[in-house]
Design a protein that fits this description.
The structure holds 2 protein chains of 2 kinds. By secondary structure, chain A is an alpha/beta fold. Chain A is 43% helix and 21% strand. In chain A, helix 2 packs parallel to helix 3 and helix 6 crosses helix 8. Helices cover 50% and strands 16% of the residues of chain B. Classes of the chains: A alpha/beta, B alpha/beta. At the A-B interface, helix 8 of A face helix 24, strand 19, helix 25 and helix 28 of B.
């Protein structure tokens, strides 16, 4: 089996160096690009399986590169941003990025995201994921189990956890959450999401302490269900 | 943080820098004794030399008068097109000043300095145009004939019999850097005239007969050479910096010269200035206002003299006093004058008799500590005639009318009293009547009353009655002496009245000045100051006005105080501001304007402009008005400067404070950053050593250090960013609803590593819903918990308790540490505050950030010592809002 090829786009040498080393050490092939135009070039030439894209590039904005890529490719893209740029993250996710990482980040985090992104890319479209770790969503019975035991959830809570599980490991932006659960144009619930998820966490912890921590709040962007 | 909307001290200093005298252009005058000596020719030659040297030369205006040689010299020089001016259905041409100012050449040639411009030009005279060019820093070459110089104008007229009207004031020529005589011997000149090189044809012939006689030319030549010699003499002394208030004074000496409207004053002024230079002493030019009414031409002469004295560097003093000698004495005493310069007085017997001697006599007699220099007269001054000036006969119709009726009544009264007191005594009644008239009217009606009385008395009452003859010689004497007494008394009375009214006016001026100064001392900003000035002018002169203020070299035309100005008026004001000269009505610049623009000069330069709109009946600005306006403007200008300085001082202070804060911050930051960086470098380089790397325990531990140090660095950077965002005030809360317990458990899990053996316990109802910015509140509470760990020992307890009271929720963070020093509980939340005895490190920003965050949420934070055990308690208070229905539903 060929090693998955990852295109790393970053103009900071210090960052691309340790990314390359850790990726290669973990069995990935690495291709590098330092500018947006280079990146697009490499995309066409090398056809990587995943792209790690930095937001701030010298020639064109990372978001522009993303847009261009998305015009003709569904290759998963993880992009790198800095803190306190929530609007940028949401925009990138809306433009088609799969996930993001905030600088400074640690290598385990990076590897985890890559794994998640690759898994979601390779799994066939039609099979929705129902299980992630101890959490299981039973669509037929319309209930959720933790470690096999049923957890009593409200309808809203059920929908919320379902979508997280369906995208297990990936960040689900607020808008997607709201869309799935309440339909489009339902922005008002945005401010209550934390409470809802808080309730879910509490219920999970009752059954299996620590499970609640699997639901991660990506402040200002969305929610994510942690996988290993 | 430096305030960004105020100017920095540097900018301010730049703006307040005075226009340096060095920035003025240099003026070189080619002076000739008469037309045809070759002034224009010489000027052009000199200009061409400059061109060869690489100077950019433009020809503003050059008259060749059809002389071929001159025209040849113009070849190759850039001639600026003239400005067209339409005057009375014809189009005439004048030099285009604006064009020259635009082009900014190094040198411009302007022929015939004395030329009068066509009405509609900016200035009345060409020399004023040149003045403007010089102020803009452009050098000028110009030509002039000796007859055009004002002080020599009379002499030339005397010599040649031809009076030239276009003159240039001496004060202007004082500004010239170089005056050269283009000299030609009369014989040569006459030769040239013959050859047709001066005038052609008829004109030449006429010239030869009139102006160009040899004896005339000789005299004119002498005049020109002498003029330039004087100038050279002055130039020798001009290197001593005695102009205005600067300069090393020899304070032992001080000179004084008394000015008047006499054209002779100019000579006295110049002589005094020369003497002052020689002695390196300051000098005063004094004008004594005796209240006498001056004829228009006299007043103009006086203004010119004062201007000349001012330009030459005198201190101008104006004083009102009847008695000139007295005034001179007073000023001399006040100012410690040591030398007085005056002209040789005329001797008029009668006047001198009554006045106890001439001015000179009086001065010499009364002042013993002062040297008096008498300067000889150059020529006889015009004999003025009557020592006592003819009174102003024009009083208007009503005074005469009323006087007439009054006298008629008095006449009838006399008729009634005739039998009682006899005809002789009637004289006293008439006298009384005349004096009454004098107290209420002017000289004319008084004279009229005197005549009337004399006639009536003579005709109706003195025998033989009904005739004009007087038989008794004693009666004749009586009538005559009566008449003289009446006249004198009447005139004196009117004079007293006039003086009284002048005094009253001066008093009101002084009072107004006092009020002005008092009000100005209380103003808080420039607008108020300008307002006060405008009202004062309005009150005193009953005329509308507008005040414009200037900043950093630009006139603020947006915010003016007073009357609304038209665009044209603005242009005049702008010119006045930029050139630091008065312009508009009654001046010689832009005189068609309805308003008079006066620049307000403070100590450091022009601070604004006053636009004064005179009454339609006023023709000219009287000296008193001018002086008063100047005085109040100076006062206001000083106040405006003071306000500006104060603003600058405050800005500087704020700047200093923020500088200090910056310094403190930088010091703390560098420490905060250096510590983890040291750990990073140390640990990483240690890992670089093969042996250390091989030891897996050491390796793991060092790697842990590297990560830990890096995380700490990240925290410092985050802290700083938070501070700057909070400072800017642009931080927007990302509000959402959440459970308080949620927040606290997050805090707890984040700070797991920092606990170091301490226990963290959360008590109370965690299900309380709060609306706020989760991240910021997380930051705030984490900071409090971190603080608790810093000031308490390991193995101690940290408690977080939640309490709901009414519409507020209180979160208390309690530790078992050292507690807070008494009295410092409030100061903890100040920026950069570090309580004494705190462990090293830390910027001291943490708690101030917490405070800001809480305040943004409408809450607060406070600190105190615990009462149960030793330790600190930090209390966070947040307002409780009712959660929306939807949310409450979902939670059921």
């Amino acid at each position: 089996m060929t090693k998955p090829k990852i295109l790393v786009v970053d103009d900071e040498n210090s960052i691309s160096k340790f990314v390359r080393h850790s990726l290669e050490a973990n069995g990935y092939q690495v291709v590098e690009a330092a500018t947006g135009h280079d990146a697009i070039q490499r995309m066409i030439e090398q056809r990587p399986d995943l792209v790690i894209l930095d937001y701030g590039l010298p020639d064109i904005q990372g978001i522009e590169v993303l847009r261009k890529i998305r015009e003709w490719s569904k290759t998963p893209v993880i992009f790198l941003t800095v803190r306190d740029t929530d609007e940028d993250k949401v925009l990138a996710l809306d433009t088609g990025a799969d996930d993001y990482l905030t600088k400074p980040f640690s290598v385990p985090e990076l590897l985890a995201r890559i794994r998640v992104a690759l898994r979601h890319a390779t799994s066939p479209e039609g099979v929705p994921v129902f299980k992630s770790g101890p959490i299981e969503v039973d669509r037929a019975a319309h209930l959720v189990r933790v470690n096999g035991k049923e957890v009593k959830l409200t309808a809203t809570e059920y929908s919320l956890i379902s979508i997280l599980v369906a995208h297990a490991g990936k960040v689900v932006p607020h808008r997607m959450v709201l869309n799935e659960v309440w339909g489009p144009n339902s922005v008002e619930h945005n401010h209550y999401l934390r409470v809802y998820f808080g309730q879910i966490r509490k219920k999970f912890d009752v059954v299996l302490p620590g499970t609640g921590d699997l639901i991660v709040t990506e402040s200002g962007v969305g929610y994510r269900l942690k996988t290993s | 943080m430096a305030p960004t909307n105020r100017r920095t001290p540097d900018e301010l200093l730049e703006a307040l820098k005075k226009t340096n005298a060095d920035e003025r252009g240099k003026l070189r005058v080619f002076l000739g004794m008469c037309p045809g000596v070759g002034k224009t020719f010489s000027m052009l030659e000199a200009a061409r030399q400059q061109v060869v040297r690489g100077t950019r030369v433009l020809v503003g205006v050059v008259e060749t008068h059809g002389r071929k040689e001159t025209e040849e010299l113009l070849q190759g020089l850039t001639i600026l097109p003239k400005k067209q001016i339409h005057y009375k259905e014809t189009t005439l041409f004048e030099m285009d000043i604006d064009r020259v100012l635009e082009e900014r050449p190094a040198l411009v040639l302007v022929d015939e300095l004395a030329h009068t411009n066509i009405p509609g030009s900016r200035h009345t005279k060409r020399y004023q145009d040149v003045q403007e060019l010089l102020s803009a820093g452009i050098n000028v070459y110009t030509t002039l004939n000796i007859q055009h110089i004002e002080s020599r104008n009379d002499q030339v007229a005397q010599i040649t019999g031809v009076l030239i009207r276009e003159t240039v004031p001496d004060s202007f020529l004082e500004l010239a850097d170089q005056i050269e005589v283009v000299d030609l011997s009369p014989a040569e000149l006459l030769q040239r005239l013959e050859e047709g090189k001066v005038y052609l044809g008829d004109r030449a012939a006429r010239a030869k007969e009139g102006f160009f006689k040899e004896e005339h030319l000789l005299a004119l030549r002498e005049l020109s050479l002498r003029f330039v010699a004087e100038k050279v003499d002055q130039d020798l002394h001009s290197h001593m910096t005695i102009k205005g208030i600067e300069g090393p004074w020899n304070t032992n000496e001080r000179l004084l010269v008394a000015l008047s409207h006499s054209p002779y004053s100019a000579r006295l002024i110049r002589t005094t200035r020369r003497m002052a230079y020689n002695l390196e002493a300051p000098w005063i030019a004094l004008y004594v206002n005796t209240g006498e009414h001056l004829l228009k031409e006299d007043e103009e002469m006086l203004q010119k003299n004062i201007a000349l004295a001012r330009e030459l560097g005198a201190e101008i003093i104006t004083i009102s006093d009847n008695d000139i000698a007295n005034a001179i004495q007073k000023v001399s005493q006040d100012r410690n004058v040591t030398q007085i310069v005056m002209g040789r007085p005329d001797r008029r017997f009668l006047r001198d008799l009554f006045a106890q001697g001439t001015l000179l006599d009086k001065l010499v007699r009364d002042t013993s500590k002062v040297d008096v220099h008498v300067i000889r007269a150059e020529r006889k001054s015009r004999y003025r005639g009557f020592a006592m000036r003819w009174p102003n006969l024009r009083s208007g119709f009503f005074p005469y009318y009323n006087t007439a009726w009054f006298m008629v009544v008095v006449a009838f009264l006399c008729r009634a009293l005739l039998d009682l007191i006899g005809y002789r005594a009637l004289g006293s009644i008439f006298l009384l009547a005349i004096l009454t008239v004098a107290s209420f009217t002017g000289g004319g009606p008084t004279l009229f009353a005197a005549l009337f009385s004399a006639i009536v008395w003579n005709f109706f009452f003195i025998p033989p009655t009904w005739t004009f003859t007087i038989t008794a010689p004693e009666d004749f004497m009586m009538v005559t002496s009566f008449f003289v007494a009446a006249l004198v008394g009447g005139l004196l009375t009117t004079r007293i009245r006039r003086q009284e009214s002048a005094l009253a006016m001066r008093e009101s001026e002084t009072r107004l000045l006092y009020e002005l100064v008092k009000n100005l001392s209380e103003v808080q900003n420039e607008k108020q100051a300008a307002q006060i000035l405008s009202e004062t002018i309005k009150r005193q002169f009953k005329s509308s006005n507008a005040i414009l203020l200037g900043h950093a070299g630009k006139l603020d035309t947006e915010h003016l105080i007073g009357k609304h100005l038209s665009e044209k008026d603005f242009a005049v004001a702008q010119w006045s501001y930029e050139n630091n000269k008065s312009a508009g009505w009654s001046t010689q610049t832009l005189s068609a304007s309805p308003c008079l623009c006066l620049p307000m000069k403070g100590n450091t330069g022009v601070v604004g402009v006053v636009a004064y709109f005179p009454h339609s009946s006023q023709k000219n600005l009287s000296i008193e008005t001018k002086n008063f306006l100047e005085t109040i403007m100076v006062q206001t200008a000083i106040v405006l400067e003071r306000l500006e300085f104060r603003g600058a001082a405050e800005a500087t202070k704020l700047y200093e404070v923020s500088e200090r804060l910056h310094q403190t911050l930088l010091n703390s930051i560098s420490h905060e950053l250096r510590t983890p960086i040291t750990a990073l470098i140390g640990s990483a380089t240690a890992l670089g050593d093969d042996k250390t790397f091989a030891d897996s325990n050491a390796r793991k531990s060092l790697i842990g250090e590297v990560v830990g140090a890096a995380k700490r660095l990240d925290r410092v950077v985050e802290n700083l960013l938070d501070v700057s965002r909070l400072e800017k005030g642009t931080l927007q809360l990302k509000n959402e609803w959440f459970e308080l317990g949620d927040l606290l458990s997050r805090v707890k899990s984040e700070l797991k590593d920092e606990m170091n053996g301490r226990t963290l316990q959360v008590t109370g109802d965690g299900s309380i819903l709060i609306e706020g910015d989760f991240q910021l509140l997380d930051h705030a509470l984490s900071q409090l918990v971190l603080n608790a760990t810093k000031y308490s020992k390991p193995a101690t307890k940290i408690e977080i308790s939640i309490e709901k009271t009414g519409d507020k929720v209180r979160v208390k963070v309690r530790d078992e540490g050292v507690g807070i020093t008494e009295g410092l509980e409030h100061r903890l939340f100040e920026k950069f505050f570090r309580a004494p005895g705190t462990p090293a490190g830390g910027i001291g920003l943490g708690l101030s950030i917490v405070k800001s965050i809480l305040e943004l949420h409408g809450g607060k934070v406070s600190a105190r010592n615990r009462l149960d055990v030793q330790g600190a308690e930090f209390e966070v208070e947040l307002p409780l809002k009712t959660p929306p229905e939807v949310l409450q539903e979902a939670l059921r």
